[in-house]
C-alpha cells in the first residue's frame, strides 16, 4: 500500500507544479436531477481533473451557490 500513497503525493506535486487548480472547490454543490439528492464538497482533493458524481445512473449537475 505505501506505493499508492507515494504515487498520490507525486501526482499532487506534479499537478501543483503545472499550476493545476482543484476542479471541485470547497462549497461546490451537485444535485441529482432525478431524485434530488445533493452533495456538497467539504474538502478540495487537489486532483488535476474533475470528478464526475453519478446518482440514479445519471451524472449529477453543478448547482448554483445559494446565499446563506
User: So, the CATH homologous superfamily?
Assistant: Desulphoferrodoxin, N-terminal domain
What value does the average pLDDT take?
Answer: 75
Structural class, from secondary structure content? alpha+beta
Roughly how many Å apart are the termini?
A: 42 Å
What count of structural domains? 1
Shape: elongated
User: What is the overall number of helices?
Assistant: 1
Low-pLDDT windows of residues: none
CATH topology: Rubrerythrin, domain 2
Describe this structure as you would to a colleague.
- The protein is of the alpha+beta class and 68 residues long.
- It has a single domain, classed as Desulphoferrodoxin, N-terminal domain (Rubrerythrin, domain 2, Single Sheet), CATH 2.20.28.
- 25% of the residues lie in helices and 19% in strands.
- The protein contains 1 helix and 5 strands; from the N terminus they run αβββββ.
- It has a 3-stranded antiparallel β-sheet, with no helix packed on it. Strands 3-4 form a two-stranded antiparallel sheet.
Short summary of the structure?
The chain has 68 residues and is of the alpha+beta class.
Structural descriptors:
two-stranded antiparallel sheet, 5 strands, 68 residues, elongated, three-stranded antiparallel β-sheet, Rubrerythrin, domain 2, alpha+beta
Amino acid at each position: 500500500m505505501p506505493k499508492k500513497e507515494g504515487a498520490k503525493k507525486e501526482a499532487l506535486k506534479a499537478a501543483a507544479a503545472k499550476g493545476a487548480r482543484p476542479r471541485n472547490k470547497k462549497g461546490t454543490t451537485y444535485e441529482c436531477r432525478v431524485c434530488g439528492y445533493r452533495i456538497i464538497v467539504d474538502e478540495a482533493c487537489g486532483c488535476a481533473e474533475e470528478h464526475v458524481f453519478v446518482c440514479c445512473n445519471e451524472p449529477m449537475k453543478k448547482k448554483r451557490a445559494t446565499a446563506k
